[in-house]
Structure formats: C-alpha cells, structure tokens
Amino acid sequence: MPVAEAYRAAPRYLDLGPGFADEVPAARFPEAVLRFRNQPWAERVGLGPLSHAEWKNAFWAFHALPNNLPEPLATRYHGHQFRTYNPNIGDGRGFLFAQLRDDRGRLLDLGTKGSGRTPHSRGGDGRLTLKGAVREILATELLEARGVPTSKTFSVFETGEALQRSDEPSPTRSAVLVRLSHSHIRFGTFQRHAHHNDTARVRALVEHSVEHYYPELANEADVPFAFFRGVLPNAVRMVAAWMAAGFVHGVLNTDNMNITGESFDYGPWRFLARYDPTFIAAYFDGTGLYAYGRQVEAVGWNLARLAEALKPLSPSAPWQDAVNEYEALARRAVPRHFLRRLGLAAADDDTNATTLEACLAYLGETPVPFSQFIHDLYGKRSFCESPFASQYTGARFAAVQAAFDHHEVGAQADLNHPHLTRPYPVDLRIEEVEELWARIDFYDDWAPLAWKIEDIRASAPPAALSSRE
Questions:
Q1: Model confidence over 303-327: pLDDT tens digits?
Q2: Is residue 255 among the annotated active site residues?
Q3: Of the residues 109, 255, 265, 427, which is catalytic?
C-alpha cells in the first residue's frame, strides 16, 4: 500500500493489554460504492496517495493498514444514558480500526460506524443507515468550519443492504463510515472498570491517557487527579464551542464524551434555527435533558461521573472542588466563544457575560435566525443590506449595540472574507438536511451534497477562529 512519508502507524491501544477490547471481524458487505472521501485529512495522516482500490480495501473490507492494528478492536465501556447507568453497552456497531499520528504528532484513531456486529451489539444488526452517514458528514463538516472540536468523517461507502429501522421508512439503504478522532477513550471506558472495582485497569487507563494525550502531566504528584483537571478545560472548550455554534448534540450520555474534548457519534443532532434554550434534537428526549440550554449542565454532570470513576485511585484528592471548578470555567468560556464567532475581542469576564446576555435577550424576542445574527453583526460591520435589517431596532437591539461598544474587533477577524458578502450564512437547518437526503434517496443525486460540503468548507473563518483539530 503506497502510503505517504507522513503516514506514521501508532497502534498504542494494544499497550493496554487484555480486558479493554475484543478482537472482532468486520462485516462482509455485498457492495462497495464510495460516497465520501476526506482527502484533506487523508493527506494530513499520510493516506492521501491511496488509490480507489486501496481505499476500498482499507475502509470497506478493513484490511489492516501497514504496521497497524492487526485486527479491529471493539472497545469495552459502560455509560450513563439519560442519567441511567447501563452496564450492557460497548462498541456495538463499530470498532477501532487503526491508530496513527497526524502532521502535528498527535495520536489519532480511525474508528468505524456500521461495520458489523460485535459482542456488545445487544441484538442489533451492527449496521448504519446511509442517511445516518450523510447526516454525520454534514455535522462534522459544519462543526469543523465553525471551529468546534469534532471528529472528522473520513470515509463513507454505501454497502448495498436493505436495513429495517423503526424510526424511519424501511427498508433503507446501508453504509459503513470511518471517523478520524483524537481519541475514542470515553468517560464510560473508565466507568466500566470502576463498576467492576477493577482499579488496576482504571489506573492503566489513566497512565495510558496521560502518556499519549496529556504527557505534560506525567510528573505530577497525583497523576489521576491531575488527569481529571486536564480533561476539564477541554470539555469546557467543546461545550462552549457548541453553544456559540448553535449546535445541539442530542445525546450527551457519558459514553458519548471522550477524554480529549471533541464531539463525536452524531445521531439526532440539530443546529438552532432561532435561539431557543429549550430546543431538543432527539425526539426521544421527552424531558429536555439534553436541550440546547442544558448542554453546559449535562457536560458538567458527566464530568462528575468521570471523577467518581477516578476517585478510588486518589481518595483524598479534592474531587468535588475540581468538579465545582467546571461551572466557573464554563461561565467564562461560553461568552468568549460567542464573541469569537462574532469577530469581537473578549474583554473582562463580567463585560463578556453582559454582552452575551444582551445578545440572547434580543435573539429571544426576534425572528432573526441565530446564525443570521452572527453573520450580519460579525466584526461590528454594517447590517443595512441584510435581509433582516428591519429587525435590528428597538430597545433590545440598542442594548446589543451598547454592549458591542465595550469590545474591539478581534485581531484575527477577517472582514473581507468572501462569505460575508452573501446575504445569508451557510447553515444546516433540518429542512435542508432532509432535502439533501431526499435527492439522494429518490434520485441518487449526490451533487447537492457535494455542493453543500464545498460551500461549508469555503465558509470557514480565518485559521485563528477555526480549530482544524
């Protein structure tokens, strides 16, 4: 396989030893139609030169990459699902396929979704719908463009099976997806071994995580506690970026949070149309537990569960103080991320919070869409030519303008970005997602999706505002 010089295999998960994963075979699919290939990220991890046939062998047939994991690994974890502990989960339709270094030297995972049944499938078929794969492509592309730490959709093959699903018209088309992520070690990975009182494996996970993801903490006096303190700000960064992006993940269970602070595993996600803190993405979230306005709280609750799993390693450490620190970190981070999206420089914390409150108070009373507001007011530019210009009036909007007076335009704000000349921002409302899928489902027309991805990538702000992580 002609990988590039940049390819650096790093199958470090094997270092953990037994008890953390199960070797599993990949499913055998009747068809292989490549629907998405993330060439920019393939180049960054040294897989750019792969031919179509080689890409298919790797990401449809799942033949091992050079010097990488010899067999796929279905990882073991538990998790709180809607705050009810579930010890019967794990990688049920996916596995860890490979690990490698990117162009910054970071350890990254190639994991799958829809790659077949595993010991953790709980009676499921281990498959992924093509619609689910398309939705994940769209979510990861727009989140990356908006500077949100996220996994990347790396590859999607349509696989030629007819799947039965209870929550959408069936039979429906099938796919296998590969995602690139900084880590697939979940909060629930620690919970599983803590649940079994296996402190040796919890400690091994901590040591592994510090070695490969938080090496700066290796010499701390209390490594488990320092590790938790290291995870905290990354989780804060992630949820603050979601809030600024108007993103609703939908299923913030502890098994859907990883230790490096990036979102992944996109199911019933949505982006806000209008600002609404009660908006939910998942139809089955009857209590609004994971509503847009409760995401900060949900991430904090999950961090507390991670602390509980780690506490036996260092019983005397001030775990509750560290958990309590999260709220203060998030209170500062959310306004700062919102200001960055607006192309404004942060001021002191109180001023930042006041500005955010003024913006949200206005958005709560206006028909202006969430993303349109950010597009129109980016960098304090004139909104006179906006389709919503007539809405920028009244006392609530005057308060926004007054709050903006306390902020300079951000040093990296690009007021000449071509995207800003458009009347409407690039967005992803559910109606458009459904329309893109309908073109594929009824007409096998993939051009609108390709155009949308191109549009999303072109809309990305300057490098300083985009994580590209």
A1: 999 999 999 999 999 999 999 999 9
A2: yes
A3: 255
